[in-house]
Amino acid sequence: MSKPPVYFSLVLHFHQPVGNFDHVFADAYDLAYKPLLDHLWAYPEIRVGLHFSGCLLDWLLEHRPMVHDQVARLVKRGQVEILAGGYYEPVLPMLRPEDAQGQVQMHMQAMQDLWSVTPTGLWLTERVWEPHLPSWLNPLGIRYSLVDDNHLHRAGVRCLAGTWLTEDCGHPLRLLVNLKPLRRLIPWQPLDAVWTMLNDLAELGRDLGVAPLACLGDDAERFGLWPRTHEHCWEQGYMRRFFDGLMERKDWIKTVTPAEYMERHADQGRVYLPTASYLEMMDWAMPSQEAMTLGTYRRACETQEISRFLSGGFWRNFLVKYPEVNWLQKRGQDLSRALDQLQSETGVAEGRKRVWASQCNCAYWHGVFGGVYLTHLRQANAANLLAAQEESGLWPSPTWSVRDLDVDGRMELHARFGPWQLFLSPQDGAAAKELDFLPKRLNLATAFSRHPEPYHQALREAAVKGEVITPDHPQWKEFFHIHSAEVRAKEPGLETFLDYDRFDHMPFADYLLPAHTSLEDLTHGAFQPVASSWGTSMDWTVSEEADGLHLRFQGGMTLSGAIETSVAELVVEKTFHLHADRLELDYRLTLPSTENKAVAGQELIWATELALGLTSQCTGRSSRNGGAPAEQDLERSWSFADLADVAFSCPYSQGRFLVEVHPEATLRHVPLWAVTKSESGFERTPQGSAFYFCRPLRLVPGGEERFRLTLRFGE
């Protein structure tokens, strides 16, 4: 009796994010993409699906143009099916419908232009599903999409042997189920385990009377770019053995493209999926403490039937977990709506492409993957938003408006004059949610706060036990993959960098600190302010003059904490002057004489934070050394007394950024290091710098303090 058949569909996803380094694109092609495409050509009977993100193709066609002919040959031979997606690889549900559909249409048109194909299948970015997607996709000609087995589990479906049908408002969409067990096996485990799983699916199909489908859809980078996979997959021959094994078993393992399978076989039935992604993503989206608790339960019952009911969180909660991400996403939506109102078709088209480029998903989430902690990806998305403003003509100057841009229930004041653009929060002491220098398309406020992550506990525990594997450890060179239980770190002592921030890092956030507050307190986020911008609501006025735009904020900052008194208020006046050649910020601090005698004479520190997405070096001048420049490293904490001015230069500043201080102050610098986990193990990644301009403050009833910061940009 012949073995029952099983259909096997391999779908390879090729992607590198907007803003990634050229050498990463090049390595991805050389180590993974080229070997894969060459390998497919050598096995003409093995049929697969391929998806290329538009941002990757843009780079490849410029720097590795041979990829066009490599794929064209495979398409012409009928061996591969090309899948569509959002052009810049966005998570579709985080977009406006117009942007989601526009990105998919742009990608479909590119596939038609490049390879004369019209895709009917969609690669769903990070498999983030929401129930309304069929209404967006079906009208575009999309007939199916890949989802995860976790999606079906959440809908109460146990049979994953074929395809399923869903719909929204009468718009149908077929669902191809991507099997997590296959992703865990290939290319990590011995091939005998793969053949056993496929055989079990074949037997299940015979028992149920269906044509069983085993789909593996995942990143092409796992076949060469991830650590040690090039050696494993190509030099040591895993992929050759894998494809040879498929050919040896072709009498019962039938390789098909997704469309081929669906042309020949009916769906298993109707299903309505809840919001979902793959299991790990849903865990990552949860608040860190809750994710740790869920992880404990998941480990306790991972081999039990109940484990499939532990579903995790909801992708959109990354917008809660990381406020910086929410701001970037809402800025894109706001610009997209603004483009709807413009008349210039050319400007709108170019501006909208830039908005779409800013929606590249990688900088909007984090787990083992995701680039929320990669400064260059955040900066690239922010730069595309500024480019969208410029190229669509949305930069008239001067201009200002007030609206709740990030939909947090509180207004932001948006001001623009000459080269400067500010988004200020009057409810938080006029701290800046965004600080832009428009000629360089540079958002300076891309520093990222240090957040607790669920995997940090594993690093702490391994460090206590002395079980962290570092590059000098004998096990470091052994084969390792993301599902391994061992704890690897690229350098020793990473657990000492597990610091977290109580407050968001924003330019022009102000703190009133006890005099004993040390540099170490600031470095570890352990300081206790007497008062701060956070929760300090300010009244504001705007005046437009020929020489600039002037924004005046005034409010009472409540004093508490370290001062043993009931309630006292420090009146804070902040005035921003936006000029063509500089941005000035004037402070006036006043302690009213009638109510605050209890706090008079307290020795305090006034600290204005300038949080910047800089990671290289700066040069300061002080009257202590006769005004001679002194270079400072941004990779460590330091204090610079009697600072007159400081100049920054690094790849992100794209020039010389100067801050002048009058009168002189002490500058304390804190590098914002995040300890993250990737496919390579634990590593330390820079999130920018927090610069605190500090000056001693002795409160005197009826007295006042005045000082100024001036920001300039030069070459």
Describe this structure in words.
- The protein has 715 residues and is of the alpha+beta class.
- The strands form 4 sheets. Strands 15, 16, 17, 18, 19, 20, 21, 22, 23, 24, 25, 26 and 27 form a 13-stranded antiparallel sheet that branches. Strands 1, 2, 3, 8 and 9 form a 5-stranded parallel sheet that branches. A 5-stranded antiparallel sheet has the order 10-11-12-13-14.
- Residues 562-566 have low confidence and may be disordered.
Low-pLDDT parts are: 562-566
The main sheet comes to: 13 strands, antiparallel
**In angstroms, what separates the terminal alpha carbons?**
78 Å
Estimate the strand proportion. Answer: 25-35%
Q: What is the molecular shape?
A: elongated
Overall pLDDT metric: 91
Contiguous helical run count: 19
- Class computed from helices, strands and strand pairing: alpha+beta
Our Rg estimate from Cα atoms comes to: 28 Å
Count of beta strands: 27
The proportion of residues forming helix, as a percent range, comes to: 25-40%
